[in-house]
Amino acid sequence: MEKVELEGICVSYGEHMVLRDLSLKIEPGQIIGIVGPSGCGKTTIARAICGFIKPQQGTIKIDGKTMFSHKDRVDIPPEQRHIGVVFQDYAIWPHLSVYDNIAYPLKKRGLPKEEISPRVHYALEQVNMVAYEKYMPSQLSGGQQQRVAIARALTSSSDFLIMDEPITNLDAKLREQMLVEIRILQQRLGTTIIYITHDQEAAMQLCDKIVILAPDGSIAQIGSDEEIIRNPANRFVFQFIGVSNFIPVVIDDGKAFFDLEKKIPYKSHIPGKMTGTKAMLGIRPMDIVFDEDSPVRATVAQAIFLGNMYNYFVRLPGMEIRVQQIAISENAKSYSEGQEVGLAFLEERYFEREDA
Amino acid sequence: MFSRAINRDLAHLEGKGGFSLDRLMIILCYVALITVVILPVFMILYYAFWDGTKIDIAMFKQVIFQKSNIRSMWNTLVIGVFSTALATAVGVFFAWLLGRSDIPMKGLMKFLFSIPFMIPPFLAAMSWDMMFSGRGGYVNKALMSLFNLTKAPFNINSVAGIIVIEVVYYFPFVYMQVVSALERMDPTLEESARIAGASQLYVIRRITLPLTIPAISSGMLLVLITSLSNYGIPAMLGYSQSIFTLPTMIVELMNRAGGSFEGIRQSAALSIVLVFIVSIALLVQRRLLTHGRYDIIKGKSMRPMLIKLRGAKYPLLAFSLLFLSLIVVAPIVMIILVSFVKAYGLPFLAKNLTLANFRRIFVGNIMVRDSVKNSLFLAFSAASFCLLLGTMLAYVIYKVKPKGGTALEMMAVLPYSLPGTVMAIGCILAWSGAFFGITLYNTIWIILVAYIARYLSYVLKSSSAALQQVHGSLEEAARSCGASHMQTLKDVTLPLIKPAMISGFFLVFLPCMRELTTSILLYGPKSRTLGVAIYQLRINGQIAPAAALSVVTITLIIICNNIVKAITRDKKRG
Ligand SMILES: Nc1ncnc2c1ncn2[C@@H]1O[C@H](COP(=O)(O)OP(=O)(O)OP(=O)(O)O)[C@@H](O)[C@H]1O
Ligand SMILES: [Mg+2]
């Protein structure tokens, strides 16, 4: 049985339709990443699952039980959905101490006093905040507040959490550490977690499965990190998950050309992955190599040394592309600005071209 | 960990939206506002234009063109225009002096400015009357004997007298607006003009003044609106000479009518004229407030360049202190002195002093004791009701955001722009058996309803400002932690806006304690308020006891005021 099942969800704010006909199934015991650019509707999905907004259409089930159904006019209030939520802005209550913040869900569920205290301490241990139980939120740093928010969500429900950008406001090192801690926590408790972020790298590092949303709120792709990296469903996904170059190409007389200011032949046969006569070639900077024998000639416009790699901007007629080379490999060679180079393209992909 | 028990019935209910806390609150708000605000307003229109069987404009015309009414309209306008102009001049002068010059003792002067707000205007007027009344004011008498005059040199019981007292009482409105604009103004604008070689006067005239125009005009309109609808000052000073303004005329017509249909209709018609005049001023004010923003006024506070007064410094200081202490301290001293004198008019000599006035009002006078009790009861109940209703309204308007939210807000602030006299007439018309046979007239409840309507917007303002600071996710967090909507309000929302609610309570409590305008029309034999009791003592010639009761009132107000200050200061520290 699915942990969460969304079916045909539509949400609009006035005229502005944010989610249209969104369907999604989430297996229990996994961390699911929902990733997408800012404003695409990630928080809206979370708010619909929690019951803070009422979709105009669709069904939401948790553990097979209907939480919301437009058709059957069911709308379980948020307090009966038993979801632990970490809000994008923490939402720690400023008038309650850390202890009282975390104890609140237990009190509301009517637990006896003597059971509350050990559970609060357990939750505080999980997020390494035991020393701070008597603090008021205003005395905590942003990162500490975020931990309190996670602890509160955990006491609220240890089997289903929704985390909306839970670590965005931490510094890089703490972010790394929190990701590891969330993973450990999830494995220990078997929690199902919906992890919302616009940072695809964190999502790939943490999540079992990733849902990528397009800017219009539709699902662009669902899959494991490997599937998504290996097989991006479309140009948007490819571009969203990493630095990328796009070059228009055209087939002419059995050969493949870059379709720039002038046509540059780069392959003497029709690429196997390509369909039709026009396409958009997508390639990562790491998958372009310098090759003196290549027919594609270009000029180095800018060379930047990044410590472990070189980052080049290379000019083709009418376009500039990005090339990255590992600096520590034995045959690494540095190129200087203005130098003419040949380029070879490995691992390229083909996407639809708008003008095709 | 917890079972996901689902009560299907409840779910259906919530889904259908048949009954939810939000919906209940929306309905309550509408019911309350229609009852306290809309019914009275509607009744005024109804009585002014409906003669019982058909629409009747003739009576309205007749009222407007009646000579005594035209006279009172004229007086209202003259007093409004002149007191506004003079109050603006005085207010701007002091704002500039304290905000931009290097005059010493600014702290003392700022403190003096805050005092007039503590004394109700009708008490101040009464005290001025004791000093400058044409017939036996203490100062007049002293001057007469000093200079061997046969006639009193001043006569405060005149249009000019009313204007002067309104200026004295209202100029701090302008001062406050302008001084805060000056404090927020970017000083580099003035400095660069000075560096470019402009003279000091030129800078004031061409740079400082134009930039503070929005603040000046909004202070000015505030004075104008307050003056047009003020009852206390013209009633205290003008009544004995039959000088009426629109508000006092409305009350007079109402009293003369003695309950006759025609008489009530006449005061309703006159009320409409007053509302019309005030609305014009309000409309102008709204336009200015929305269009008059200059962005050289910045949010953060900066240290402005102070203008050196040089030789003029000490003469100006002496003048200011003298002026301020005359207008602020003199009336208080006068009231206190009179409250201890055996009979009004006797010189303040040791042999004429007594505590009898205080004894008389508390021991001998049931009316006075009742009035203290009534005012405390009314202020407390009105403040509590306003707190409940105002906070609920703020919650509905800013958090639930129903479709008719703007309508609710407009209804709630409507009485704020209606003169108190008009609101009171509306209450009489609505609650003398017109609806469901409910008759509140002559009871304390009609005063309570009027107070609630008048002061509701005070709580609405303070509570909604606080609510807008409470981010929605704080409430949502409580919901997903298992709290119901009601529990969320109790555990999260209300504690977070508590400080604003406390100050909202006192924002209503204090003006209710000193209210005269509506209570003078609404009181019954057993429901006199402090204001009414003082007013009646004085009208009946018991001026010394009136002064004693005033002293008691002012003391009560100061005590309450300090309680508020202590509470709000605690909140800031904690
Ligand atoms: N209360 C609201 N009223 C109107 N529009 C809203 C409201 N809340 C969100 N929106 C709109 O819905 C869209 C989706 O918002 P949402 O908060 O779900 O984005 P998000 O993906 O969480 O973005 P971010 O990564 O910046 O948090 C946005 O375009 C936003 O403008
Ligand atoms: Mg978001």
UniProtKB/TrEMBL annotation, chain A:
Does this UniProt record's set of keywords contain Transport? yes
Q: InterPro entries from the xrefs?
A: AAA+_ATPase, ABC_transporter-like_ATP-bd, ABC_transporter-like_CS, ABC_transpr_MalK/UgpC-like, Mo/tungstate-bd_C_term_dom, NA-bd_OB-fold, P-loop_NTPase, Transp-assoc_OB_typ2
Has UniProt tagged this entry with the keyword Glycoprotein?
no
A single Pfam family, by name?
A: ABC_tran
Q: Where is the ABC transporter domain?
A: 4-241
Q: Which SUPFAM superfamilies does this chain map to?
A: MOP-like, P-loop containing nucleoside triphosphate hydrolases
- State the GO CC annotations: ATP-binding cassette (ABC) transporter complex, substrate-binding subunit-containing
What keywords is this UniProt entry annotated with? ATP-binding, Nucleotide-binding, Transport
Question: Which GO terms fall under molecular function for this chain's record?
Answer: ATP binding; ATP hydrolysis activity; transmembrane transporter activity
Which SMART domains does this one have? AAA
| Name this polypeptide is given | Maltose/maltodextrin import ATP-binding protein MalK
Question: Organism classification, top ranks?
Answer: unclassified sequences, metagenomes, ecological metagenomes
From TrEMBL, chain B:
Q: What Gene3D superfamilies does UniProt report for this protein, alphabetically?
A: MetI-like
- Return one Gene Ontology term, BP aspect: transmembrane transport
> CDD domains from the entry?
TM_PBP2
Q: Which PROSITE patterns match?
A: ABC_TM1
Q: What domain of life does the UniProt record list for this protein's source?
A: Bacteria
Localisation = Cell inner membrane; Cell membrane
Keyword annotations: Cell inner membrane, Cell membrane, Membrane, Transmembrane, Transmembrane helix, Transport
Tell me any Pfam family this protein matches: BPD_transp_1
State the membrane topology.
Answer: Multi-pass membrane protein
| One Gene Ontology cellular component annotation held by this UniProt entry | plasma membrane
All copies of the ABC transmembrane type-1 domain together span 73-285, 372-564
Membrane spanning residue stretches: 24-49, 77-99, 111-132, 152-175, 211-233, 264-284, 316-341, 376-398, 410-432, 438-456, 500-523, 543-564
Question: What family classification does the UniProt entry report for this protein?
Answer: Belongs to the binding-protein-dependent transport system permease family.
Xref: PANTHER family: FE(3+)-TRANSPORT SYSTEM PERMEASE PROTEIN FBPB 2, INNER MEMBRANE ABC TRANSPORTER PERMEASE PROTEIN YDCV
Q: What is this protein called?
A: ABC transporter, permease protein
- The organism of origin for this protein: uncultured Spirochaetota bacterium
